Request: fold
Amino acid sequence: MDALNIGGTVGEQLRAQGVSRRGFMKFCATTASLMALSPALVPRIAEALAGAKRPSVIWLPFQECTGCTESLTRSHAPTLESLIFGAISLDYHETLQAAAGHDAEAARNRAMEANWGEYFLAVDGSIPLGNKGYSTIGGVSNVDLLKRVAQGAKAIVAIGTCASFGGLPKASPNPTGAVAVRDLIKDKPIINVSGCPPLPMAITGVLAQVLTFGQLPELDHLGRPKAFYGQTIHDRCYRRPFYERGQFAESFDDEGAKQGWCLYKLGCKGPVTYNACPTMKWNLGASFPIESGHGCIGCSEPDFWDWQGVYRPLSTTRWGGYQTLGAAAAVGVAAGAVAALAARRKQRPVGEDEA
Amino acid sequence: MSILEFARGPAFQVALVVFAFGVCWRLAGIFLMYRRFDRSQPRQHALIAGGVRAIVMRSLPPHELEKKIVFQHVSGYAWHLAYFASLLFFAPHIPFFKQFLGFGWPTLSNTVALLSGAVALAILLALLWRRASHAVLRQISTLDDYLSIVLSILPLLTGFMTYARILPLGLRYENMLGLHLLSICALLVWFPFGKLMHLFLAFPARFQAGVLLKRKGVEA
Amino acid sequence: MSATTAHLDSLRSAAAALGGRVGLSRNTDAERLDKARAVMLGELDGSHAAYLETCLHCGMCAEACHFYLGTNEAKYTPIWKVEPLKKVYQRELGPMRWLRRMLTRDITLAELEAWQPLVYDSCTECGRCDLMCPMGIQISPMIGIMRRALAAADLLPAELAGAVDEQKQQGSVLGAGRDQLLALARDSAAAGVPVPLDLPAADVVLLTSALDVKAFPDSLRATARILNKLKLHWTLLSHSIDLLGSGESLRELHVRRIVEEIVRRGAKTLLLPECGHAYPALRFDSAHMIGEPLPFVVYSIAEFVGQEIQDGRLKVNREPGGGSVTYHDPCKIGRHGGVFEEPRAAIRALGLELKEMESHGRTNYCCGGGGGQFLIARAAQLRQRAFEIKMREVDDTGAAKVLTACNSCRFNYQAGAAEANWHKPIESLVEHVAANLAD
Amino acid sequence: MSTDARARLAAIAIVAETPPAPSVGADSGNVPLLLGEIRHALERLLATGAVHAIDLRAIPLGPGEEDRLLEALGTGELCATFDALGRSELQECRYPGVWRITHWNAADELIGRFIEVTFAPALLASNREDIRDGLERLSAELSG
Reply:
């Protein structure tokens, strides 16, 4: 990987690889599809891409499980190879790069210097604030590294729910004091590509969008690109007609489940989860959780892990259990009894009256 | 913490504790109070049966009385039935009850459940208007009456808005669902302190009346 | 007609004179308020608590009340008439009284004064609202508490205060005392209907009322004729002519004295005259007042006569001429006492065609003047509004006359009819029975 | 793994359940809508020459619905394939003017599927730049 060789446009890069114009148009069509843009926009994308500079991307992993990178490498369009060799210049990725140790650090520093103010920073994983030693790279704590690299970044792409919202490490009781990128960096544009992991197409799609139009995509209330997070799972779910008709699976093996009815009662969080799974789907477009018979767990939402359980329907609540209620009731009865007994002293019992 | 999480978590827990405590407090305070024991010779016996009968018969006033209150009677029946139909038989509500009871039950189709909710909502609004405009009702109404109607309307209203995704003020679905749950919390918190307690008190009061009237030999 | 108006006028002037006797209260406002509150707290029990806690403010009780229906004035809504009682309950006895005290103000004497016309002028404690309430709330007994509380605060309307005063000072009611009763008994005996008075021992004891003595002596004579015919060992008590609902303690005092007199005579049966207000008091409330079940049975005379006819002990002839009648169920023995069937059995035995009013039996409309209301001069117009409802229902039956078993009702009918120039006879059921006794 | 353990594993009864036929309405209902859209696009194509494209990945489709749609569109006379960054197929459908365009990547994974309503997909035509390149190559060969 040559960090310094980031010159040239995407079009030139692809041509240099021997990709024909027809191949380039195909690339543009699938990229448009990826960005959830209308096919009618393909010519504009082609024009933009042909002249787009390859941006440098530095990828920092913090408290993460590599699931997001795994997801990215499963991305099938554009292929990761085309991303790395054609569309973007991925100059530092702890997991993917061949270089290790000081060489890797050096590559990152070179990329930062060469593209100061122009590179994109991709982050996966949350950042522990509880103890800086919880997660370090080359002896540098996550928070210090993030702040340093973020300084020269044009924009930050927080990949996965951990980087976007704190994710699993932040789940109650949050032992490491994990926070999201947006909790630490306030002065740079941040694109949250949440999900646990995010849809591979969402990762590449966002990168492609940034690259194509040279500007940040439109973001929702949580800083997520609307193209992918504009609607809820429920909004686009093919099982939604069952919800509207009130047809629900009651267990995972009942007739309703076999008929493919709505999984709301089995804890599906689709109605409050913003993501593109129902249309983009997973595993090369094979399916998505609901299509496979399991409710959405809400993985692209903040604090989803603390949503009172994957299988508790949305219309349930914490309620303390019968012990708490019983105690409240018992105290209530006691209070009422005291009130009644005190009242008895003001009331006149039988036979006792004024002279 | 989002509105929805707050509503599903601490808000609901607190509301339920206030509800349980308040209801028991009020019921115990009423029923442990000193009561006179009627030693008179009953004209008719089977006083308990008379009480039970009153519980039923007070829903069906005699013709001469009924014809004066047709509107109140019909609207009262209609909104209560419609309200409970949408509360108890709207499918997404079942898991809510199931978490307490451990079992669920068959549901109405969404169309029917929503329609009955709409009926309840329309009647409640009409009754609110009537309370504010009818001379007798204005005379005897208290803050409790208005508050209780409004707090009964809010879950219906927010429920509809949630289902139909009518989301004003830039609210999103999950906010509206949270508000729906919060409106139920508000209802639960207010419940023990106002007239909504008639859910628990109506039958005892009717029973008392039935026993008293049975003793006198008058059909309740 | 002239006879009727004559005794009406004499009663009216007696009542008006009573009002003049009442002076200003000797107690301070604070004392009066305290006394009223003490009565309320003393009488309110768990059953009232359940009623007051359950009220939904639905307003349906208004639709049962002849005063509201006759005027359409919201203040006559029955439950509104116990508002001060409700306040005292909520602030003093209710389980949430601590909260209530923070949020509400205490009642004032001015408030009680304002409620005087509501509980005396515009309520006859007829109990129709008690039947209407969808929650089963028994409002009229709570009006009773309100009245006794107001009485304790020296807030009885002048006429009623005068009557109580008269009974306390002179032992008579509206000028009808023991002397008048003795004279009536003498006259009756002279006319061939002996009235055994104050016998030291008897099986059956009969009470009478001031109204009978003053205005409807025929009713008493008819009763005597029937009791004689049945060859009962009976006596009329002259000690207690009336039970005035003038305050809890006085009422209890009366009841205790009557019970003592009856027990002393070894009587097993107490008969009450064609008079309303004594019935619920002696039949149902007295056991509580004396703290134990009564050692005798209490009947209204209409109830007793009807039973005797039903059981075949009393034979009556079909009334010559027959004709159609309607029966007015007096609130106190009907809705408050459960006496519905016996008077109708008597009417059927007399061969009269019974044409029921639309509201009859337990839903019967009050005559408009019960509960002492008919004594209150300023309430005359209100009384008439309520009576108009009654007139309409009577006219709708097409019956030739009205029979009833309460002389208060009769009195009020006559007054109302005179006022409205309405010519529908209202007659005593017992007198009809007595006039047609068979051998 | 011992033979014993194998035997015990084999003893676990495995029943393969055939899922029941989906009940009526067990889909998104989008197939008829898409067919309707295609019909309108064809009408417009004839009237004005306007080209229309549908990205099937942007449409929520239930299990089997895409197959049903493609089945409904059928296969027409012409089919063209090319290989650039992976295979691509341009298939005319049963209804002339409707084209099914499918892209695979170099690893032969499906990366996009479109329906185009057009006289001929733009991808069929040779591109000017490519022609120029080709011309240069041909010239070089002829001169070489």
